[in-house]
Amino acid sequence: MRVDDFLAEVDKAFDGDPRTSAPLDPTFERIAATVNGYTSANELAVLNAAARVMPADECYLEVGSYKGRSMCAAVQGVTDKTFYVVENYLEFGMQGQEARAELEDNLRTHAAHADVRLIEGNCFSLLRRPGLVDRPVGVYFYDGEHTGLSHYLALGIIEPWLADEAIILVDDATYPMVSGAHEDFISRHPQWRVERRWDAETKGDPRWANGLHALSFRRDAATARGSDEPWDVRWRRLAYLSSLGPGQKAAWKAIHRFPELIPLAKKLYPSKKASSID
Ligand SMILES: C[S@@+](CC[C@H](N)C(=O)[O-])C[C@H]1O[C@@H](n2cnc3c(N)ncnc32)[C@H](O)[C@@H]1O
């Protein structure tokens, strides 16, 4: 995936500077108004621009679909490409089967023309599984859980799967813990850089929700395919799998059983509820 093609396609999708203008195509406003979710029309237009210019021998991989808003938008006008969704149905009190049914229903309505493949489970376990996707990832959209550790790991764990040149879109990037995590990661991994920052000016900004950053990756000899997992990624992955991941799972289950814990959870964990149409 050529990073320059993506940047040019984003410019074409907006009526002026994307930071201060709306997408030209009204489809994204319509999807934001009809599919429950947390991504804004501007963010949806950027995801779609990435999908449009991605070569067909690469794939688009999203972590965190919720009810499918972002994926429904990404595939608009794109018929010949492969899209993967990784979702563990953990957050927001979603019950597995019920949540999946709603996601599938939205994909049937808005994405029936596209090849969208659902993979159920925790991305940090799944992305260590050989053969999970059938081609290099040209576009990666991370919209999963938001802790500094998860965001750092979200970049480290995808690197082996990426195409030699790839675009990585990180949602909620205006949160300091999110941008801090990718800046920290990039300082140790010079193959990565931040290409664009579309930041939220207010909490729940109508244009950019909680902000979206576009990162790029360009493979070099140090990141050749088959390289060992770097130590900074390895220890975080092991820490996540042994404590943070199971702890969060237990916390979400407890919140579902005891809704009186919600105010406490909101203090401990940044909420995106403001931008949902629920
Ligand atoms: C903010 S929502 C995604 C919103 C969606 N992209 C949209 O456009 O509305 C985050 C989703 O990520 C999922 N999630 C969180 N952590 C995850 C993980 N480690 N692996 C897979 N899915 C995860 C949650 O279950 C939740 O549905």
Automatic annotation (TrEMBL):
InterPro entries the record matches: SAM-dependent_MTases_sf (IPR029063)
Sorted UniProt keywords: Methyltransferase, Transferase
Pfam families associated with the record: Methyltransf_24
Keyword Methyltransferase assigned: yes
GO biological process assignments: methylation
Entries under SUPFAM superfamilies matching the protein: S-adenosyl-L-methionine-dependent methyltransferases
Highest rank taxon of the organism: Bacteria
GO MF terms held by the record: methyltransferase activity
Name by which UniProt lists this protein: Class I SAM-dependent methyltransferase
Organism, as annotated: Janibacter limosus
